[in-house]
């Protein structure tokens, strides 16, 4: 679904939706019946706003700033918001005034990244400011520098040149900054966005007295219980019994216990640690497992069964089972759970 949402042009959107249908047909049918791509896919966005944002991160940033203000009464809350905006506008004006750039710094940084990506594009000039750009991975798009269009639609959506357009600029020997939209220029940032000033106002003691009826606050009703400050969670969000929100890792992560080295649980829920005797034994051992004899307490490099064959001293290794590992130690273990295996050496 995210691939379909990020698709900038129609043909790619249709291909991603076909892939989604092959993977989860029920999800594809739900999207087709209950939503319109004009609200969530870049391929259906209008090119006028010069913005391809898919998430509401701007709203979330504003809410994080307003955490303290929204707990206050309505007049105090509005006053705090007004003061914040007044100082914010002045801070952005001073910041941009001190920047000696023609394009906003974040846009310029993203443009430099696109210049590196343009190395994979091969432009072919066809006349009248038109190019045919082939990508090394197989894609091919038509670029019209005069009308400001590229068939990938990234230029129209964002307002700054895509990698295909930058490759054409490199072929012509012109700067790609020339084709950046006026919205991202320093002049537009200063004059249109942050130049208007929020005028200061007097406090309540300086307000003009009128003959209008006095507006009183609503009658306060005390609600039983503690006031809730946490946000209301959606019906599809999973909440644990402790009240915390978590994403389930079932079937996604293979957890291995650091105590018994068995896959399927962690040391916090290890069944072997419930018995103090077994727990002390396991903690005192090095729980390496040999890939040859399938025993713990050593690995293949230090396996005594391998070393005994080439040991010129004639030292033989004897496996002794301790705990409930099964009836034999050599080869495979007959039963579970495996506790540990101790090794004894005896001379000739």
From TrEMBL:
Superkingdom field: Eukaryota
Keyword Transmembrane helix set for record: no
SMART domains xrefs: ZnF_PMZ
GO molecular function: zinc ion binding
SWIM-type domain ranges (all copies): 141-173
Keywords, alphabetical: Metal-binding, Zinc, Zinc-finger
Keyword match Metal-binding: yes
Listed PANTHER family: POLYPROTEIN, PUTATIVE-RELATED, SWIM-TYPE DOMAIN-CONTAINING PROTEIN
Protein name: SWIM-type domain-containing protein
Lineage per the UniProt record: Eukaryota, Viridiplantae, Streptophyta, Embryophyta, Tracheophyta
């Amino acid at each position: 679904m995210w691939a379909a949402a990020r698709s900038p042009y129609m043909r790619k959107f249709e291909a991603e939706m076909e892939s989604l249908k092959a993977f989860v047909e029920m999800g594809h049918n739900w999207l087709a019946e209950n939503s319109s791509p004009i609200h969530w896919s870049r391929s259906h966005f209008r090119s006028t706003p010069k913005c391809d944002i898919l998430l509401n991160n701007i709203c979330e940033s504003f809410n994080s700033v307003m955490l303290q203000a929204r707990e206050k009464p309505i007049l105090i809350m509005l006053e705090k918001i007004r003061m914040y905006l007044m100082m914010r506008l002045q801070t952005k004006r001073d910041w941009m005034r001190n920047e000696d750039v023609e394009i906003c710094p974040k846009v310029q940084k993203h443009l430099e990244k696109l210049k590196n990506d343009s190395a994979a594009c091969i432009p072919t000039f066809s006349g009248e400011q038109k190019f045919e750009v082939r990508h090394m991975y197989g894609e091919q798009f038509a670029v019209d520098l005069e009308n400001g269009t590229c068939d990938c639609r990234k230029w129209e959506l964002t307002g700054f040149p895509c990698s295909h357009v930058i490759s054409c600029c490199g072929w012509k020997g012109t700067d790609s900054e020339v084709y950046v939209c006026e919205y991202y220029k320093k002049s537009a940032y200063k004059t249109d966005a942050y130049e208007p000033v929020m005028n200061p106002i007097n406090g309540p003691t300086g307000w003009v007295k009128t003959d209008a009826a006095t507006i009183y606050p609503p009658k306060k009703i005390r609600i039983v219980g503690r006031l809730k400050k946490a946000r209301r969670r959606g019906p599809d969000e999973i909440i644990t019994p402790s009240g915390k929100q978590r994403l389930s890792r079932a079937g996604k992560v293979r957890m291995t216990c650091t105590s018994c080295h068995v896959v399927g649980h962690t040391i916090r829920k290890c069944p072997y640690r419930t018995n103090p005797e077994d727990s002390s034994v396991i903690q005192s051992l090095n729980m390496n497992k040999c890939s040859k004899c399938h025993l713990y307490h050593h690995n293949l490099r230090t396996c005594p069964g391998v070393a005994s064959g080439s040991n010129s001293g004639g030292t033989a290794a004897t496996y002794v089972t301790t705990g409930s590992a099964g009836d034999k130690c050599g080869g495979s273990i007959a039963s579970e759970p495996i506790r540990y295996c101790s090794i004894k050496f005896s001379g000739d």
